[in-house]
UniProtKB/TrEMBL annotation:
<feature type="region of interest" description="Disordered">
    <location>
        <begin position="130"/>
        <end position="156"/>
    </location>
</feature>
<protein>
    <submittedName>
        <fullName>Stage II sporulation protein P</fullName>
    </submittedName>
</protein>
<feature type="transmembrane region" description="Helical">
    <location>
        <begin position="20"/>
        <end position="40"/>
    </location>
</feature>
<dbReference type="Pfam" id="PF07454">
    <property type="entry name" value="SpoIIP"/>
</dbReference>
<keyword id="KW-0812">Transmembrane</keyword>
<keyword id="KW-1133">Transmembrane helix</keyword>
<keyword id="KW-0472">Membrane</keyword>
<dbReference type="InterPro" id="IPR010897">
    <property type="entry name" value="Spore_II_P"/>
</dbReference>
Length: 374
């Protein structure tokens, strides 16, 4: 009788674990590569900016733990942080959805939710995701070509202008209005945000700092050029660039806006007086935005030292659905401020304009002294 010889193949537990880990690693790498190929634009695939944009969506704790594998001091400093799970990291790499941050998936489904994609750099008193700065869009009839608007635009003249100005104040959304004076309308051709910019300029001028306050009707320019409201910063850019070309002395650029949050969020009582609160907005969609952020942060802390509670903080804004530059790439000393909200009065706004001008005045004189000492 012949016996057929049989072969028994044994597989150790270590081999099985290695195989499983290899498969998981392959799946994760595949997800990462596919995600980068599909999320990066054709013009910048594999460029450093694409990598920056891609990784900026990941949890910061992940990078700290990765670096901590080489330098244990990072893990000691981040002892209160939990180690991200492999599954959540893989999901975030593949889909840019963070299960711990509902904004990452709600924002794709809810219209207007992209406002909550902003990043709070420095939070002032009461500032959180529920009190972020909100921009109000003009009503549909705001872009009807009206002769009255054109007539008013032709009569506009700068109220404060110096040939050797150091500061240029512009109002990209120049018709942003305040309900106490606009009959409840969000936009108006008179008694709007321009009055606040003029007040800031007046105080700087009285302090001996030459200012150019631009009062161009940028909204009217959009109508004349047949452009959408989203192109407002393109038009105001032409205004700022023209000012720079005419005056080499210009160093500081302030774009003044008003928020759409209600009165209780945009108002603070300081020394017994109601004042419109200020929010600094920094555009992140240009390479040198960190310098603009440093300026905004510095002014925030100075404002808080002198007027505790007046600043709502510093906000980063960029990505899809917004301009993301706000012409701040034109100068490291360019800033965008949201002064007050839609329900504030000019008494409240003027007090804040004076306070803000005082802070800026001191900062500018310090910078001029440093330049003279070099």
């Amino acid at each position: 009788m012949r016996y057929q010889q049989s072969h028994v193949i044994t597989v150790s537990k270590v081999h099985i674990q290695s195989l499983v880990i290899t498969v998981i690693a392959f799946v994760i790498v595949s997800f990462v590569v596919i995600a980068m190929l599909t999320t990066a634009g054709n013009y910048n695939r594999f460029a450093s900016t694409a990598v920056h944009d891609f990784t900026s969506t990941l949890q910061s704790e992940l990078f700290i733990h990765v670096i901590g594998t080489e330098n244990r001091h990072y893990l000691e400093a981040a002892s209160e942080m939990s180690t991200p799970s492999l599954s959540s990291v893989a999901l975030e790499l593949a889909t840019q959805v963070n299960l711990e941050d509902p904004r990452t998936f709600l924002g794709r489904e809810l219209p207007g939710f992209e406002v909550f994609d902003d990043t709070i750099v420095v939070a002032g008193e009461g500032t959180d995701l529920t009190t972020m700065s909100i921009e109000s869009s003009p009503p549909p009839d705001a872009f009807i070509d009206q002769e009255d608007d054109k007539g008013e635009q032709e009569e506009v003249r700068p109220s404060l202008s110096h040939e050797d100005a150091l500061v240029h104040i512009v109002h990209t959304h120049n018709r942003e209005a305040f309900h106490p004076y606009s009959g409840g309308e969000n936009y108006a051709t008179e008694q709007n945000i321009v009055e606040v910019g003029k007040e800031i300029g007046r105080h700087l001028d009285e302090a001996g700092i030459p200012v150019d306050v631009n009062e161009d009707d940028i909204h009217g320019m959009l109508i004349d050029r047949g452009l959408h409201f989203s192109r407002s910063y393109d038009v105001s850019r032409d205004v700022v660039v023209d000012a720079k070309n005419k005056n080499d002395n210009l160093e500081f650029f302030i774009d003044v806006h008003r928020d759409s949050q209600p009165h209780d969020i945009t108002t603070a009582t300081i020394n017994g007086e109601a004042m419109a609160r200020t929010f600094f907005v920094v555009g992140t969609d240009h390479p040198d935005y960190e310098r603009n952020k440093a300026l905004a942060t510095e002014l925030h802390y100075r404002l808080e030292d002198e007027y505790p509670g007046l600043s709502r903080g510093v906000l980063e804004r960029g990505g899809a659905g917004t301009n993301g530059v706000f012409n701040q790439d034109l100068s490291p000393n360019a800033m965008l401020i949201e002064m007050g909200g839609i329900d504030n009065t000019f008494d409240e706004l003027n007090r804040s304009a004076e306070a803000f001008a005082t802070i800026v005045e001191t900062y500018i004189y310090e910078q001029l002294e440093e330049e003279e000492g070099e």
